[in-house]
Write a structure and sequence with these properties.
single chain, 107 residues, mainly alpha, 5 helices, elongated
Length: 107
């Protein structure tokens, strides 16, 4: 996830999955990915409940969630990542603040 850079040829869209190789990601990468997703979830919860309003009535977590959305969607769509129990739980944790952000968004 945050280990190195990713070229357009290695993008999730170009391979239809996050991990570009034919084999599933190594267990250490799955564990690191789950840990990073949990860190993102904690940051989003802090922004969501940490006080201070966003500009224009937007929740403070909205911009961060919007920035993370492409990676969250790519991981959720990738069988190698969503198939790991720790990653699946961490994905759910990271996406939960989005529910309250969507509920509080002005119509």
């Amino acid at each position: 996830m945050s280990h190195g850079t990713q070229s357009a040829a290695d993008s999730p869209e170009s391979h239809g999955r996050w991990w570009p190789g034919p084999q599933p990601p190594p267990a250490r990468d799955l564990a690191a990915g789950a840990a990073e997703l949990r860190l993102l979830a904690a940051a989003l919860r802090f922004l969501e409940f940490g006080g201070g309003g966003g500009g224009g009535g937007r929740p403070p977590a909205a911009p961060a969630l919007e920035a993370a959305a492409p990676v969250l969607h790519a991981l959720a769509a990738a069988p190698a990542w969503r198939g790991d129990a720790d990653v699946a739980v961490a994905l759910c944790e990271a996406r939960m603040p989005g529910l309250s952000v969507a509920d509080s968004a002005p119509l």
